[in-house]
UniProtKB/TrEMBL annotation:
This is Succinate-semialdehyde dehydrogenase. GO terms for molecular function: succinate-semialdehyde dehydrogenase (NAD+) activity; succinate-semialdehyde dehydrogenase (NADP+) activity. It comes from Eremothecium sinecaudum. Pathway: Amino-acid degradation; 4-aminobutanoate degradation. Keywords: Oxidoreductase. The active site is at residue 276. NCBIfam families: SSADH. Residues 39-500 form the Aldehyde dehydrogenase domain. It is an enzyme of class 1 (oxidoreductase). It catalyses: succinate semialdehyde + NAD(+) + H2O = succinate + NADH + 2 H(+); succinate semialdehyde + NADP(+) + H2O = succinate + NADPH + 2 H(+). Pfam families: Aldedh.
Length: 508
């Protein structure tokens, strides 16, 4: 029998108030945009960045407009004219310098992420290492941008291909990984010989500004890396990037709704697009799975970033024969989570990004309960800590038609849905518009193989909840977007294949 936990049975480290990190390098970010190698502080308007755990203002930044982004695009375009000719080995060196600088500043960069995003410091430092790894990886790839030679039919012709950088890239990034989502795109772009205009999320722009500063130190020429800032004019700046004939590619991580708008707006110039959009990842636990392993790995994916990653498991399908065991075990571990400000020691989980994120979790919980779900851990808001803190809710016997099965919760709701057969669970799992990641737990290699091949998602993670790292092609299908980031494929989206045919070759 599953026990209903009492609402207050959670761990709070202490009230999340007024924590200002101390930095070894206090000047790691300038409160300014970064265009053509210069900090741009002046603007008609400014916006504030707050610590999501306390609501306290931590920076005031220029709220830029279309003229600023157009200026950044022009500078990036001018820089491209020479950066595209920087030898591959030199680009590799610049990327490696930047990787080294990130690793030298790993603690400070981690504190910055925690401060602006709310994730615990250990996770933030993990993100910095993950983020830096893309520069290291693409330093390696920069010198391996190969073409092909083609045995053609015209006997006096010879043909081969070269791969050339596409040009200026607009990089639009989310708040959930303030550093890693930038580096995964920018690393590939810069390795290919492209220049970039980065628009970080207004909630978490400080990491982008720190990266710009380190990039300048690493030796990237002015104009190769630009960061524009806005809170109020997100739509106008997005439109300017999409419509500009000087921008050749847009890479975006964020919601499916915004991805569709960017795709429409980019149609007039037929830009290349990489879209890493919403997910709604199913996690399937078969009756022959190692249940302890499945529990630990389900926690690793479900509660990474407190449920705020595109690849977090959103729907946990557990075979009816093992659902009680799985549920009891996962609930027992979740009850031990320790919440507090991410900069406090021993905190395992921090806050959500804002109060709208809390409201969305509540709406999904309410809907599932209305449809008959059993509450195992009630969870809920933690006003003692702050407005953005929410202790995880665990529900079982969730209706397969519940709202959370149609759209991602992006928060700490662990929703467990029973299933009876492999056919049924594959149908449940594929019954969504999204197709980013899926998770499968079984000891039977045939089950793993068959189900992995049948699931409609760009990535299938088997017997582990943790798979994303720089060598892995990251991306989705269906309405989760297109294009692959990271890996040997990530650089393809930043290059054009040029065919060169030479005719009238005579044979001796
Ligand atoms: C994301 O949430 O989009 C990124 C997650 C990851 O890189 O693992």
């Amino acid at each position: 029998m599953l026990r209903l936990s009492r609402f207050k049975a959670y761990h709070i480290i202490s009230r999340a108030m007024s924590i200002r990190p101390t930095f070894a390098n206090e000047s790691l970010f300038e409160p300014a945009a970064f265009i053509d190698g210069k900090w741009v502080k002046s603007a008609e308007e400014y916006f504030e960045v707050s610590d999501p755990a306390t609501g306290e203002v931590i920076a005031t930044l220029p709220d830029q407009g279309v003229n600023d982004v157009n200026h950044a695009i022009e500078c990036a375009s001018k820089a491209f004219a020479s950066y595209k000719n920087v030898p591959h080995a030199k680009r590799a060196q610049l990327l490696r310098n930047l990787y080294n600088l990130m690793m030298e500043n790993v603690e400070d960069l981690g504190k910055l992420i925690t401060w602006e995003n709310g994730k615990p410091l250990a996770d933030a430092i993990g993100e910095v290492k993950y983020a830096a790894s893309f520069f290291d990886w693409y330093a390696g790839e920069a010198v391996r941008i190969y073409g092909t030679t083609i045995p053609v039919g015209f006997t006096r012709n010879r043909a081969f291909t070269i791969r050339q950088p596409v040009g200026v890239c607009g990089i639009i990034c989310p708040w959930n990984f303030p550093a890693a989502m930038i580096t995964r795109k920018a690393g590939a772009a810069l390795a290919a010989g492209c220049t970039v205009v980065i628009k970080p999320d207004a909630q978490t722009p400080l990491s982008a500004l720190a990266l710009a500063q380190l990039a300048a130190k690493a030796g990237f020429p002015p104009g190769t890396i630009n960061v524009v800032l806005t809170l109020k004019r997100v739509k106008e700046i997005g439109l300017a990037l999409c419509k500009s004939p000087l921008v050749s590619k847009i890479s975006f991580t964020g919601s499916t709704a915004v991805g569709k708008i960017l795709a429409e707006q980019s149609a007039s110039t037929l830009k290349k697009l990489s879209l890493e959009l919403g997910g709604n990842a199913p996690l399937i636990v078969f009756e022959d799975a190692d249940i302890d392993q499945a529990v630990d790995q389900a926690i690793a994916t479900k509660f990474r970033n407190l449920g705020q990653t595109c690849i977090c498991a959103n729907r946990l399908y557990v075979h009816r024969a093992v659902i009680d065991e799985f549920t009891e075990k996962i609930a027992a571990k979740i009850r031990k989570f320790k919440f507090g400000h991410g900069l406090q020691p021993d905190v395992t989980h921090g806050c959500l990004i804002n109060t709208a994120a809390v409201a969305k979790v509540e709406a999904h919980v309410e809907d599932a309960i209305k449809r008959g779900a059993t509450v195992v851990v009630k969870g809920g808001r933690m006003p003692e800590l702050g407005d953005t803190f929410y202790f995880p809710t665990v529900l079982t016997n969730v209706d397969p038609e519940a709202r959370l099965t149609k759209e991602e919760t992006f928060g700490p709701l662990c929703a467990i849905i029973p299933f009876d057969s492999v056919e049924q669970v594959v149908e449940y799992a594929n019954n969504t518009r999204f197709g980013l990641a899926s998770y499968v737990f079984s000891k039977n290699i045939e089950t793993i193989y068959t189900v992995a091949e049948t699931l409609q998602s760009g990535m299938v993670s088997c017997n582990t909840g943790v798979f994303s790292e720089c060598p892995i092609p990251f991306g989705g299908i269906k309405e989760s977007g297109y294009g692959r980031e990271g890996s040997l494929h990530g650089i393809e989206d930043y290059t054009n294949i040029k065919t060169i045919a030479i005719g009238n070759i005579s044979r001796l």
